[in-house]
Each structure stands twice: as C-alpha cells, then as structure tokens.
Amino acid sequence: MKKIIIVFDGYCILCSDCVLWIYKKNKLKNIFYTHFESDFIKNNYPNLKLENTVYLVDENENFLKMSKAIKYCTNFIEMNFILKFFIKITPAFILDIIYRLIARCRYVMFGKKSICSFPDGLHTKQILK
C-alpha cells in the first residue's frame, strides 16, 4: 500500500479542517499527517519550511504542493464524482491561482490557532509526530 504524508500548517484552522476531512474520506488509511513544526519534519526534512501551501510527500519521497498535491490526494479519497472530475480536468495553473488566493487570506477568513497542533478527531495512528 502506498503511504503518503501530508504536511500542513498546524496554525491554520482551514488547513486543520481540510486534513480532518481528508482523514475521514481516506478509507485505505494510507495518508499520514504532520505539521511543519513537528519533530518528524525537523528530523527527516529539516529544509521544509512553512509556506502558503500544503506539501504532500508521495511514496517515492517526491514533494508535491498546491494543485499537484490536491490532484494526487484525490486518488486516495472518496469524494463527489463531479468535484473529483472538475479537479482532475482543471489545468494546474488555474487551480494554483485559486489556491494562492485562498492561502493568502486563510487566517483572516478562517482564523488562526494560538499554537501549532493537529486537528481534534484525527486518530493518533495517522499522525507522524
């Protein structure tokens, strides 16, 4: 089974909600989660720093971000067929524009936690600390 790691902004409420949504939709439970300030990142990927994006590390240790990460992730989660189809056929540069707009104002629109943390409800076996 392919193991995938999602590295997200642990301060961002939108990011935490998305991670929790993906966790619930990932029936294979092959997606693992960590945030940029975790010991796992510090020990394994020390050059990976918080940006206005989520990172996905695929089974070959390739780093994907923005639309590439989203498109790849849809292969492993159950979601509405129309939404999945729309994501797959939309060119990456268009999805990246939308992604950047949301990422720039995510704290203002959705809020920011005072500490970097995992979302409540995420099973500990799916967390890389």
Protein model, in words:
The protein is an alpha+beta fold and 129 residues long. It has one domain (4-126). 42% of the residues lie in helices and 12% in strands. It has helices at residues 13-25, 39-44, 66-73, 81-89, 92-104, 106-110, and strands spanning 4-8, 31-35, 55-57, 63-65. A four-stranded mixed β-sheet has the order 2-1-3-4, with helices on one face. A hairpin with a 5-residue loop joins strand 3 (55-57) and strand 4 (63-65). The protein is globular and about 35 Å long.
Which percent range fits the helix content?
Answer: 40-55%
Overall 3D shape = globular
What fraction of the residues are assigned to beta strands by DSSP?
5-15%
What is the alpha-carbon Rg in Å? 14 Å
Topology:
Blueprint: E1 4-8, H1 13-25, E2 31-35, H2 39-44, E3 55-57, E4 63-65, H3 66-73, H4 81-89, H5 92-104, H6 106-110
Parallel strand pairs: 1-2
Antiparallel strand pairs: 1-3, 3-4
Brief overview, please?
The protein contains six helices and four strands. With 129 residues, the protein is of the alpha+beta class. Strands 2-1-3-4 form a four-stranded mixed beta sheet, covered by helices on one side.
